Amino acid sequence: MNDALQEIHDFLPCRTPAAWIDNALANQDLMLIDHAHCEKKAASTALSLMYRYVDNTDLLNRMSRLAREELRHFEQVLAIMKKRGVHYYHLTPARYAAGLRKLVRREDPARLVDVLIVGAIIEARSCERFAALAPYLDDQLADFYNSLLKSEARHYQDYLQLAEQANGGPVNDRVAEFMAVERALIESPDGEFRFHSGPGQGGSCTIYS
């Protein structure tokens, strides 16, 4: 898993700020609630791609498996929340995904390429944050987050490979455009904590090693 995590660190433009980790540790109930929302949204994204691109067999197979895994993760987060007496409720979404999707082009195949790149970035960032958080969590939650690393790393790879297929070649230049936005979203202050938010207002952008 170390090699996969290093690949993700190389892929992403920056590491999670220490201030975000501090916020997460101080707001673990909220972190779990938003994590559950993220898993549900990830499953929904995979299903929407399956409905839109019915002639892409490779995409259909990969997104079907991804959706099942994300829904299983959703159930696992809910079970942990139940044990801890944390109630699931609606949250306003983070600016993160919407900020990335602003760059998505409107016409296919460019639209599909961009949607898949966004999926790869979100999965990679999720994996990076699970790994960043795990050393500071209680044993149950640390074990759970560590268990997610392998599947989230594979999801990132699936999205990126599908993007290259849709593009008919490498997507490095397009990924770089999205990464400039991703870095700003991750490092600039956010008004409210979410799993993919930036640091709190006035937070430091140093990182845990």
Please write out the topology.
Elements: H1 2-11, H2 18-26, H3 28-52, H4 57-83, H5 95-101, H6 110-133, H7 139-167, H8 172-187
Number of domains: 1
- The CATH homologous superfamily is called Ferritin, core subunit, four-helix bundle
Give me the CATH architecture, please: Up-down Bundle
Query: What is the average per-residue confidence, as pLDDT, rounded to a whole number?
Result: 93
Distance between the amino and carboxyl termini: 17 Å
CATH class: Mainly Alpha
Question: What would you note in describing this structure?
Answer:
With 209 residues, this protein is an all-alpha fold. It has a single domain, classed as Ferritin, core subunit, four-helix bundle (Ferritin, Up-down Bundle). It contains eight helices and no strands. It is globular, with a radius of gyration of 16 Å.
Summarize, please:
By secondary structure, the protein is mainly alpha-helical. The chain has helices spanning 2-11, 18-26, 28-52, 57-83, 95-101, 110-133, 139-167, 172-187.
Which terms summarize this structure?
disordered C terminus, Ferritin, 209 residues, globular, mainly alpha
